[in-house]
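Message: Just now I want nothing more than another pair of eyes on a protein record. I am handing you a single protein, as its sequence and its fold in token form. As I understand it, each token names a local backbone shape. Take your time, and here it is.
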Amino acid sequence: MTIKHLLKSAIVLSVVASSFNIANAQDGHYVGFDIGYNDIEHDYKDNDPEDPTFDSDDKAVSFGINYGYKYSFQNGLFINPEIFYDHVDSSAKDSSGECDNNQNSEQIINFIAGVKSNIGYNVMNNLGAYITIGYEYVDGKLANNVNDDEQWGLSYGLGARYNINDKISAKLEYSMTNVELEYSGSNEREDTDINKIKVGVAYHF
């Protein structure tokens, strides 16, 4: 799914939503807690042509916190900047079997943090749908505990937030991030794709 497709989805959503009686959904500051499912794929590469290359993947649960602010415009559109931290603790091993005895064949992601902006439409008084675009910091290392790397990468996705009452809301969100990790002191580098589905609750104040 590309940003172009996301923008098309947002336009369609706005057209459909225009038939509703719009009232601004919950605005202001909030703090939230998320649980996520992460599908992480590594494409391992080595600058040494004699070393094998391989792919690895992992499915990991994450736990996160976030802080944000939502501002709605009179036409029903809203903008929602947010900062977040997710503890991931993912460990992915070589799926080809070529490097089973090599510590460098196991890639670990400890956490993901970042900033993003949710831009969307208040479909009805207690429901908002949005696209999300952000910049994420991925902390990774190899299993030898010597070589590590941290990189920033662009993220984008779709989400929806439902206001349960005037203080509590729930959300569902999908996003994708791509980074290239280049481990210090080694020839290893990885093209890493992270697909995330998050559910969460937030307290508004």
About this structure: The beta strands are 28-46, 54-72, 77-93, 106-124, 127-142, 148-163, 168-182, 188-204. Confidence is low (pLDDT under 50) at residues 16-25, 95-104.
